[in-house]
Design brief:
Helix 1 links the parallel strand 1 and strand 2. This protein has a four-stranded parallel β-sheet with strand order 3-2-1-4, covered by helices on one side. The chain has a four-stranded antiparallel β-sheet with strand order 5-8-6-7, with helices on both faces. The longest helix has 14 residues. It has nine helices and twelve strands. The chain is α/β, with parallel strands linked by helices and 272 residues long. This is ATP-grasp domain-containing protein.
């Protein structure tokens, strides 16, 4: 029986991955970890281990201890923050299908620039050196609305669709006043009102093994999130679109010439 370690197993992505393992005929011994003692009860795992956050210096030693104690064959890290620190450890990375840490560490702004330079269609993006530049940003985009987003993070981090520069200024200043962000954490992007699509793929040493696309329909607790975006959707539908496949494959290869592991692309349609 194969033994699998799922970190961050109490999150939506971790729970879904464990469910996927449980529905197939092959049986697995699954160890689940999470820093949240309550979320750790969600996944259907054989053993639960509470860990510190990924930024704690004890995180990696504890993961190594779990791997050794349970003779783990494969590590599936969740979320991207834990994937990054695990990929930086040579010993642990050998038990994953993760790309190099330099690939995982790209922020949204860096990714946008790489894709733009390789003629992949991307949302027009601006950064701010001063909060006073917001007004000119909205004027250049015909008045908005515009997305205010964080350069890093997931789950709609720091994001809000703002109707005008005053609303955007209040939003950014709120996070700065609460000491949860600085101005350089934010970027401004054009609003694309079309379909919200996710493309997931698995690669082995540069060869695409499998992929599938899904359209996001519903997010959990969107009524209490200012942006309406809360990360992993609760409802999606699988779609088949060769144009999406080609565009997503090209985007991946712009970021990593020899993809290895799991890669995902988010796509948003314009008004057309």
């Amino acid at each position: 029986m194969k033994k699998i370690l799922v970190t961050g197993s109490g999150g939506i992505g971790g729970v879904n991955f464990v469910r996927a393992l449980r529905v197939i005929d092959e049986k697995f011994f699954i160890v689940g970890t999470d820093f949240n003692q309550y979320h750790l009860e969600f996944p259907n795992v054989d053993i639960r281990v509470r860990t510190p956050r990924h930024s704690d210096h004890q995180f990696i030693p504890l993961i190594k201890k779990i791997v050794a104690e349970h003779s783990i064959d494969f590590i599936h890290p969740q979320p991207s923050s834990e994937s990054l620190v695990i990929s930086e450890d040579t010993e642990l990375k050998q038990k994953t299908f993760l790309p190099n840490s330099s690939i995982i560490s790209y922020d949204k702004l860096t990714t946008q620039k790489i894709l733009f330079e390789n003629n992949i269609p991307v949302a027009i993006t601006k950064t701010l050196s001063s909060i006073d530049e917001l007004q000119s940003c909205f004027e250049k985009f015909s008045g908005g609305p515009l997305w205010i987003r964080s350069k890093k993070g997931a789950g709609g981090n720091l994001s809000l669709l703002c109707k005008n520069h005053e609303e955007a200024k209040y939003w950014i200043n709120l996070w700065i006043m609460k000491n949860n962000a600085v101005l350089d954490d934010f970027m401004i992007q054009e609003y694309l009102p079309g379909r919200n699509i996710a493309w997931d793929s698995f690669w082995h040493e540069g060869k695409l093994i499998a992929s599938y696309s899904r359209e996001r329909i519903e997010y959990p607790f969107k009524h209490i999130s200012p942006s309406g975006i809360t990360g992993t959707p609760t409802v999606s539908k699988i779609i088949v679109d060769e144009n999406i496949n080609k565009l997503s494959e090209s985007a991946i290869k712009c970021i990593d010439e020899k993809p290895h592991g799991n890669y995902a692309v988010d796509l948003k349609g314009d008004q057309n």
